[in-house]
Amino acid sequence: MPIVTIQVTREGSGPGRSSVTAEEKTSLIAGVSQLLLDVLHKPLDSTFVVIEEVELENWGWGGLPVPEFRKRRSPGELGVGGNNHESTP
Description:
The protein has about 90 residues and is an alpha+beta fold.
C-alpha cells in the first residue's frame, strides 16, 4: 500500500491562480498512481496520494523563506521558461 505525499507551495500554477486547481490535482493523482503501477506493479486501488499545499511563507530554501530566496536569486538562474518559481518550491 504505497502512500505518496506531494508538497507544493500555495501560489498557483499560472496567472490569477492562488492554488493548485482541482484538475491539476486530479492529474497529479492519476500520474503518480500510474507511475507506481508501471514501475512497481502496485495496483491503482492500493495507492494513496496526498497533496499538501504549503503557504509560501512556511517554505524555506537556501536558509531563507522562499520569497526572499527568489528576490536574491540572479535573473540568469531563473527556472525553465524564465519563470522564477518553475522547478522550485
